[in-house]
Every structure is written in C-alpha cells, then in structure tokens.
Amino acid sequence: MRRNDWLTPEGTRDLLFEECAAKRYLEDRITGIFENYGYSEVITPGIEFYDVFNGKARHFAPETMYKLVDGKNRLMVLRPDTTMPIARLCATRLRDEELPLKLFYNQSIFMVNPKDSGRDDEFEQSGIEIIGGENEDSDYEALFLAAKALGECDEDYRIEIGDSGIFSELLSQYNYSDEQQTEKLRVNIVDKNYPAIDDMLADDKSFEALRMLPRLFGGFEVFEEARKYLFGEAIEKKLSRLERLCLELAGIIPEEKIRVDLGLVNKKNYYTGIIFKGYVEGYGQPVLSGGRYDTLIGEFGGREAKAVGFAVNIEAAAKVYLKNKGKSLAKTPDVLVFSNDRISALKHCEKLISKGLSVRNFNGICPKCAEKFAKKHGIKRLDVINENGETESREV
Description:
The protein is of the alpha+beta class. About 35% of the residues lie in helices and about 20% in strands. The radius of gyration is 26 Å and the shape is elongated. The model has no long low-confidence stretch (mean pLDDT about 90).
C-alpha cells in the first residue's frame, strides 16, 4: 500500500540544498534586473476566486486548476497564472495610478498537468508586466529584459517571437468562427501537429495560409517567406511591425539568439499581439513565456489599458543552471564553532557574524567530532571554546 504521508503529490517535489541555492540565486539575479530598471514589486494572493480566471478572454479550463471551496461555499482556485491577478489589481487598487505602470513579481503558480507530462504542477515564476505606455516601446523593453533574464539562466539561449494577431486575422479572413474548432486548431498549430492540422482543414487550398502558419519558423528570412502565403493589409501591418521589432532587437542582442515563429499563437487566449517564448540549452520546454494583452484589464471593469509582460519558470531555470554550470551554489560556512557551553557557543557565533563571517554551530559531543564534520563539509576553520571560555581557532 502506498503511504501518502511519505510522498509528494504528482507534479510536485521537494527541493534540496543545491536546488534551493540555484533557485534563490536566479530569483535574486532576475528580480535584480527588474529592480534596476525601475520596476516595483507586487504580490497577489495564492488563493483567488474562480471567476478571476474564467472570463471571456481569460478562460482557463476548469480541469487545469486546483479548486477548493471556502467557508462560505464560494468556489476558489490556487493561482494558476499571475498575469490575470495583476490585471485585476490594475483594474481595482491601482486604477488611479499614473500609467505606464512597471510591475514585477516573484510567486508560485499551480496548474493541473496531464499525468506523465513531465511538467510541474507547482512552480515559481519571476516576471514583469508593463501596463500602459507606447506599444512598440513596451514590447521592445519587454523583449530586451526577457533576453537579459534568459542570459542569467544560461548564455546559450534563444528567444522565439511571433504575433498571435496573425492567427486571429486569418480566422477572420476565412470566417472560421467555430470556437471549439478554433481552440483545437490553435493547440495543433502551437504543437506543430501537421497531420492534425491537415485533417482539420481537409486539404482545402483556401486554408493554405493557416496550414503554412506553423511551418513559418526560423531566422529573419521567415518574413520574406511569409509574404508568399499571408495577405491583407492588417496582416502586412503586423508582419512589418514584428520584422522591425526583431531587427531592432538584433541591435542589442546577437541575431542568432532570435527566432521568428509565426505559428506561436499560445494556448492562453488572452494574448492579442506580440508573443514570445524563451529556451535554454538542455531543456526542451520553454523556461520563459510572455506576450501582449491589450483587452484583459478592461475585462475586469477597470480602465482600458494595453499591456505586455513575461514570466520565467524559476524551477526549470534552476534545474538547467545546475545541469549546465555544474558548480555548487550552496554556501559553505566560513567557521564551525564548538563548545560544551551553549551560551558561549552562540555568543561567539554572534561575534563572528558581526564581522561578516558565516558560521555553523556544532552540536556534537567533542572537538574531534567537530573537526571530522568540518573536513567532510568543506568548512576551512574550526573555533573550539574550552571550559575557561578561551577560543582556539584551527585551520581544517
């Protein structure tokens, strides 16, 4: 019989020493970037009303959320996304603040993933949201900061950029209005499931542009190729804007790190424009995702405000960092302190800490045991306090 009191639920795990150190390191580095660029931190509740995630443009399938009922029989969820609570916050408590707002966060989200998907149901995100401001300026800044955040995870990264509005425009051109089929097509395009796309579009040549969309992936040459299949003033405007954005971005980060993916339409349907994902070497899933959402805040009944943002999956990034860097981040104490007198030991620890040293108080029974422990754990100095209160420092 399985002992559930020994286990963690599917999709969750305990993090141990090196993992915690890598996670904390990346949190500090990435949020440090956001603070240096003038972003202000916000924290939203881990428990939200179900309604926050179930509006027209912000729908999360019920089966993907952890649900619970509060003491008043109201349906609640564990936060499956951070963008929507921040949109709620902007429409309520921040509604009178001057725009643009530049916000950052560092908090956990919870999602029910399919069994054996390899995805975590609980993980921490560090991210930003730019609320208001000029579209292109905000998009450019978000992409630049996304690249900087990826660079903290691993120098071998790439950022894939698309525009979800192209998919929406094609649907309008074809009068493709079946919501259930549209969502199925969206998922198949994101997954680049070519056989399923062909089956859905029934080899109808009038759907050639939709069929080609997930194949329009690569370097900047994609823009020239796309214009062979994608037509219309609205689509050309989006293509030109995206091309200009990519070219400008290549002026500040290496061009080979930028990929164009016009099939990047995302399974979150609140995105309305630019959309992007970030990858690092050695990890098959995105460690960063983001995009523009211009209608979401207004849906909460507040002022209309265009916005763009992204989030880094810190757990995934930490996993990659440890694998690729191969170096220890867990801090080894500078000094191990031993004394048979507890008060003397802790007073000495405080004295060392006040001098900027890190310490570990050894709770063993003899100095030899302490020395053995120090050697095993790489602690270079041992301070032994004798019965007279005198301290002997030894190099280990």
